[in-house]
Structure formats: C-alpha cells, structure tokens
Amino acid sequence: MKRMLLVMALAVAMAPVAKAQEPTPESGLMVRLRALSLRPADRSDAIPALGVPKDAITVSDKVIPEVDLSWFFNRYLAAELILTYPQEHDVKLSGTKIGTFSHLPPTLTVQGHLPLGRVKPYLGAGVNLTLVTDTSLSVPGVGKLELEDYSFGLAAQAGLDVRVTGRWYVNADVKYVTIRSDVKAGGTKVSEVRVDPWLIGGGVGYRF
C-alpha cells in the first residue's frame, strides 16, 4: 500500500511536467508576431510627355510590425491571414520626394507544411488586397497625382517554424506580393507603379 501511495504521489507531482512536454497539437490556431522589412521593387512606366524615364518613381523601404493568424487543418495544411496597420510611405520622382501615401495590405495564403520534428518548413501561396489611403502627391508643373484606391494581386511565401519549448516557436519568413497602381493626373493615367515588395521577416509564434 505504501508503494502504491508513493507511485500515485509521484504521478500527481509529475503531471504538470508531462503536460508541458506534450507535443504541440496537429490542428488548431497559431499566432505569430513578426518584424518585417518591406522592400519595394520600384518599377514604373516612363512618362515621355514629362521627360520622366522608366523606373523613376520609387517607394520607400520600411520596417513594419505584423501579426498573422494561422489555422492548421492538420499537420500538413494551414491557412494564414497576415495583418498589420496602415503604413505610410514616401514617394520620390528621380530622387526628389513628391509626397506620401498610406496602404493596408491584408494577405491570405494557403500553406503546405513539412513537419521534421522541431523544425517545420513551409511554402504558401495566396491573394493580397491592398487598400490605398491618404494619398498626397504633387509634381511641379503637373499638379496633384492620384493613385488607385486598391490593388488586388497574388502572394507567395516560404518560411520556417522551429519549436523552442512547449508551444513556443521562432519563425523566419519571406513573402513576395504583387501590388500595382495606376498613377493619374487630372483623371488621366500617366504611369503605372509596380511596388511588388519583398517582405523579409522574423519573430515568435505560439500554438494553441
């Protein structure tokens, strides 16, 4: 009887440790917090009438925060919603600042995961909707420039989750997103800007 009571006491004492060492679930929600370096491609059409050469319109790089919510259907398949808050960028024409605009770029991807113990690489593809707001652009001799209110494009990503302990992970992620907008002056299209940024990030994640 004493031995049985001792075993039961040890089992009760070790239960929290055993629970902490349980593997993370194969389905359910994962939340990640990342810092992203946004690096636009800076491609734009020439504007012959204004003497503006190709790729003269550029958008500033920026480091932004990101929160993403990933729902795992099983250990191999997940859907990820990528969120941030509106980001303001400087716009330059041939190196001279001509104004700013803000954008909000929610992105939804479907991911394939390859669980290799603690290391879990993945690939993803999906869609992006970029909402453009607070555009304030002006060129001397031309006047105010306008951008489209939204851009709908594709997204691709590759990343890696590494389980540190329990349900905590560290993450590295690279995304490419197509973001494009017509540039108009007085309602007439004068150019097209292809922002098409690379998003290079890292952070932490928690699996519920």
Automatic annotation (TrEMBL):
The keyword Signal applies. One of its GO terms (biological process) is transmembrane transport. GO terms for cellular component: outer membrane. Keywords: Signal. It comes from the Bacteria. Residues 1-20 form the signal peptide. InterPro entries: OMP/PagP_B-barrel, OMPW. This is OmpW family protein. It comes from Anaeromyxobacter dehalogenans (strain ATCC BAA-258 / DSM 21875 / 2CP-1).
